Amino acid sequence: MKTATRAWATCLFLFGGLSAYGCGDDDAQAPAGGSGAHSATGGAAGSGGSVATGGGQNVGGAGTGAEAGTGATGGAQSGGGTGGSGATGGSGGTETGGAAGQGAGGTGGDQGGGGCAFVPGGDDFTRKIVVAHNRGPGGVESNVYEVLELSESGQISRPGVTFEMGSGEGEIVFTTGGAIGIAIQGQGKDRSLGVFRFDDNGDLFVVNPAIHPSFYPHKIIIPPGNNGDAYVLDAEWVEHGGGVYKISFGCEGQYYEMGKVLDAKLPNTMLLLDDDRVFLSSTDVLGSDPSMEAHLIDLLSPPVRVASAEAFGDDDAIIVSAARTEDGKYVLLGDDSMFGGERVGVVRIDGDSLSYVQTIPSVPAPVSIVPSPNNDVVLVVSEYPDDIHVLNYDPSNSSKPFSLRGKLAYVGQKPSLPSTAVMIERGSLKGHVLVADLYGIRQIQFTAGGQGVKDLGLYKLGESFPDTISALGIQK
């Protein structure tokens, strides 16, 4: 696949049913400030799920017995956990390490799983940035990750915290509130998910350095809810496992596979829309025409394909990135194929319909696309030849709403192998973008009015192999 080919090219440049994977103790001692909540007890066929730690923000875990389990009791001021299949929710918070809790009991879960009610927390806080350094001295493979911090004013600091899991790549994603982080790691038989968590004090713990799922993870999508669920794309052909899978995480980062949601051929990108609806790029899903790679899908049971459309007007595209405008009108897709590449396709979403709008040429290797929350510009990251492009967006122009303005006006040195781009979506830093660069993190800010976007420069980590960045994530 194209993504694997590009990763190998970068490497050459640098050289020059329900299954639980055990992690964490169900009766683990909580950190200072509260005691652990009581673990749930399951039904006749299994025991309950994880415990929650005490304190102001954590909640009871889920009952995951094969029969009716009871959710865990929450910590102080916490809600109860979600029950397993056919289960009842946990009770509200109790007086454990603080004042009596006010949380309501949880609700019964539909399939078991993690069932943890993760709390979003405040909009403004010191955010954790996590990067992967997949090269060590001399260019040897490395499994090192590093934790940096982003202040409420947008300043990056480097406290010197590192840990090891697997060889990370792409975007590191976080559950609601940022307590649990998940990274995609390795290639081939070494493909895995690495899971870590931050406790209430901000201390990091590796939950499981390398989970090997029953599928080949390509991209992880975290829904906006707070129950620990996530979707994972396996971007293979259907006969080799290609499709959309559902996983879930408990309060302590316990991993659960919830099964396959949808068969799809080469599903490289997926965007969450409203309710159970998603936008999916795939060359064959639910009986679609092979010439149509853009789809609206209702992830019901069973899933329903609502609409499909061509995204580029030909069959040459290999879609590596996708993003929806803030107003929800358009989806932009990056094509990185050797035949029709160097372009961004645009499709319109209008209720239950999906239609091709335009193709924007001269945008090579568009590995990340980030629309502004102000609905006026879009950033497109070109991994090669090392640039970040700006598209103008005019919502009033229905025939050609997007046009190529040119390259971002850089502060200091230009990008070097830019790749993953992530944007903060709430608080005073809403519209603040971090872009993984070869030796650091570039910060960009979307602005209201004026040019609509401003480069804030590169935070450089160094100039040697151990400083290179192969994966990036932030608590959004």
Describe the structure.
- This protein is mainly beta and 476 residues long.
- It has a single domain (127-474), classed as YVTN repeat-like/Quinoprotein amine dehydrogenase (Methylamine Dehydrogenase, Chain H, 7 Propeller), CATH 2.130.10.10.
- Helix content is 3%, strand content 40%.
- The protein contains 1 helix and 31 strands.
- The chain has one helix at 2-14, and strands at 19-21, 83-85, 108-109, 127-135, 141-150, 156-164, 168-174, 180-185, 192-198, 204-211, 219-221, 229-234, 243-249, 255-263, 269-272, 277-281, 294-298, 304-309, 319-324, 330-335, 343-350, 353-361, 366-371, 377-382, 387-393, 402-407, 421-423, 432-436, 440-446, 453-460, 471-474.
- An 8-stranded mixed sheet has the order 6-5-4-31-7-8-9-10, with no helix packed on it.
- It is globular.
Please give the structural blueprint.
Elements: H1 2-14, E1 19-21, E2 83-85, E3 108-109, E4 127-135, E5 141-150, E6 156-164, E7 168-174, E8 180-185, E9 192-198, E10 204-211, E11 219-221, E12 229-234, E13 243-249, E14 255-263, E15 269-272, E16 277-281, E17 294-298, E18 304-309, E19 319-324, E20 330-335, E21 343-350, E22 353-361, E23 366-371, E24 377-382, E25 387-393, E26 402-407, E27 421-423, E28 432-436, E29 440-446, E30 453-460, E31 471-474
Parallel strand pairs: 2-3, 7-31
Antiparallel strand pairs: 1-14, 4-5, 4-31, 5-6, 7-8, 8-9, 9-10, 11-12, 12-13, 13-14, 15-16, 16-17, 17-18, 19-20, 20-21, 21-22, 23-24, 24-25, 25-26, 27-28, 28-29, 29-30
